[in-house]
Amino acid sequence: MRIYTRTGDAGQTGVIGGRVDKDDVRVEAYGTVDELNCFVGQAMGFLDEEKFADLLADLLEIQHELFDCGSDLALLKQELRPYKVTAEMVDRLETLIDKYDAETPDIKKFILPGGVQASSALHVCRTVCRRAERRVVTLARTQPINEQVRRYLNRLSDLFFTVARLANARSGRQDVEYARSAEVFRRK
């Protein structure tokens, strides 16, 4: 099989159900989800396999789910096939957030992204996830989407914040509070 097809040389790409311009808002949305998936893979490379075996397994599942998100976003018409991303996937993310948050110290103020390399990489995942969510919001203004994808990405960015803090906590590194932050987080 050849990797190149030459079908996109004129500036269009195939989506499920047709062709669109490569800079179409739909392509921007699923392309940003793809970018996020790459950053997740990179972050996984910074995690110790023994200390973070549970998180690595969860992130691997999230990588599969991000492909599901991209697939749903590439779908021009829902009647072509059922959506892949479900409310149950969003619920599972909430369970993971609660599980991993229980291992992190309480915070009251905003924190600076950073710490150990894995934490920094997971903060990058958080910000790219937020950008993907913004692209999906833009897409949803003009075209039908699977609303669960938007919910999934919203919850996923919260998970990335939590596991970035977890990476520091399990590594014995404290988060650094933003010096000029008001108290914005409630106690657990």
UniProtKB/TrEMBL annotation:
Molecular function GO terms recorded: corrinoid adenosyltransferase activity
Species, as recorded: Paenibacillus konkukensis
Gene3D superfamilies in alphabetical order: Cobalamin adenosyltransferase-like (1.20.1200.10)
Keyword Transferase found: yes
Broad class of enzyme this protein falls into: transferase
Protein name: Corrinoid adenosyltransferase
Sequence ranges assigned to domain Cobalamin adenosyltransferase-like in this UniProt record: 3-166
Pathway the protein acts in: Cofactor biosynthesis; adenosylcobalamin biosynthesis; adenosylcobalamin from cob(II)yrinate a,c-diamide: step 2/7
Ubl conjugation listed as a keyword: no
Reaction(s) catalysed by this chain's protein: 2 cob(II)alamin + reduced [electron-transfer flavoprotein] + 2 ATP = 2 adenosylcob(III)alamin + 2 triphosphate + oxidized [electron-transfer flavoprotein] + 3 H(+); 2 cob(II)yrinate a,c diamide + reduced [electron-transfer flavoprotein] + 2 ATP = 2 adenosylcob(III)yrinate a,c-diamide + 2 triphosphate + oxidized [electron-transfer flavoprotein] + 3 H(+)
Family the UniProt entry places it in: Belongs to the Cob(I)alamin adenosyltransferase family.
Gene: yvqK
SUPFAM superfamilies linked to this entry: Cobalamin adenosyltransferase-like
UniProt keyword annotations, A-Z: ATP-binding, Cobalamin biosynthesis, Nucleotide-binding, Transferase
EC identifiers of the protein: 2.5.1.17
